[in-house]
Amino acid sequence: MKPGAPPPRRRLPGPARLGVYAFLLCAAAFFLLPLYVMLVTSVKPMEEIRLGNLFALPVAVTIEPWAAAWSDACTGVACEGIRGGFWNSVAIVVPSTILPILFGALNGYTLAFWRPRGSATLFAILMLGAFIPVQVMMFPMVRILAGMGLFSSLPGIVLVHLVFSMPVMTLLFRNYYASIPQELFKAARVDGGGFLRIFVQLMLPMSTPMIIVAAIMQVTGVWNDYILGLVFAGRDNLPMTVQLNNVINTTTGERLYNVNMAATILTSLVPLAVYFVSGRWFVRGIAAGAVKG
User: Fold this and answer.
1) Given 3-state DSSP classes, what are the helix, strand and coil percentages for the chain, each rounded to the nearest 5?
2) Do 250 and 75 touch, CB atoms closer than 8 A?
3) Which of 26, 35, 198, 293 is the one with CA 20 to 30 A from 136?
4) What DSSP element (H or E) covers 56?
5) How far apart are the C-alpha atoms of 280 and 262, rounded to whole Å?
């Protein structure tokens, strides 16, 4: 810009950009408004909720509904809150995340580099399993687990999550390893590396972005699961989502909307925390595995 020349005018956003901003604001409001209603309702006493002003901020903030949802809310005949379901969900999520990632990475590594005979057919069959509805497989899985003596047990529900996660986990790691140059694998083979040694010492350390992506997907998917936990976990291992359903549908006298909202937020805290802490890693990992198909 020449000395003394007037500063350039800022161009106003065009109609297309204004339309994009308007759409994004509407989408954000669509998803955030229910969260706002749940949050403000969970800290209101029932006297304020009865006034019917759904969007009003609480006049007298109380955390009693949160304490009741955690330890006193009735889930059927038991009034122990959803804390038992929380620890059941933790016990289910941890192995149901570690094992699928390990086996998915091993499958993807095998299909990308070793390519045994019939690997393409096996991969196609595995991908076909990703499109079969879970409900179709429930009865056969019940019969199989019952025959193995694992039905209504913690190992049984972990095995179910492992089986149903294999197609997606294998696809993620197979695509990620396919983007790694074959020369690196061949150099490791020349140096005397075997199947497991190359996988453990070379491939796994390079797989951090995809491991994070797989962990985010698996944690959120298993934690939010309802139908598999209800059918396969058993009475002693019911996850938090099932306990939440029992809290909301158990009515003795007045329906406590503030306790229900607090229980709902408590149930969703783990997926929300996972998203906010590692959301940027999810985008990076997906981009890292999108070079080749």
Assistant:
1) 70, 0, 25
2) yes
3) 293
4) none
5) 28
Domain CATH code at residue 215: 1.10.3720.10
Identify whether residues 98 and 21 lie together within a single domain.
no
CA distances from 253 to 79, 258, 262 (A): 14, 15, 19
How many Å apart are CA 90 and CA 240, to the nearest integer? 9
Q: Is residue 128 part of a domain?
A: yes
pLDDT single digits (tens) 144-192: 999 999 999 999 999 999 999 999 999 999 989 988 888 999 899 998 8
Same domain assignment for residues 180 and 88:
yes
Residues 42 and 107 in one domain: no
Q: Count CB-CB contacts under 10 A for residue 41.
A: 23
From 62, 97, 119, give the residue that closes a domain: 62
95 plus 205 within the same structural domain: yes
Whether residue 113 sits in one domain with residue 37: no
Burial-class residue 89 by CB neighbours within 10 Å (0-12, 13-18, 19+). Answer: buried
The reply to whether 39 and 158 lie within a common domain is no
- State which amino acid sits at residue 264: T
| Higher per-residue pLDDT: 291 or 222 | 222
Report the distance separating Cα 127 and Cα 109, nearest Å. 16
Give me the sign of the Cα torsion angle 211, 215, 221, 222.
positive
Sign of the Cα torsion 125, 224, 286, 200 reads: negative
Name the pTM for this structure: 0.84
Number of domains within the chain: 2
Distance CA 150, CA 144 (A): 9
Q: What does the radius of gyration of the chain's CA atoms come to, in whole angstroms? A: 25
- Token pair 């990076």 in the structure block, residue: 284
Residue 46 shares a structural domain with residue 182: no
**Which range marks the domain in which residue 38 is found?**
15-62
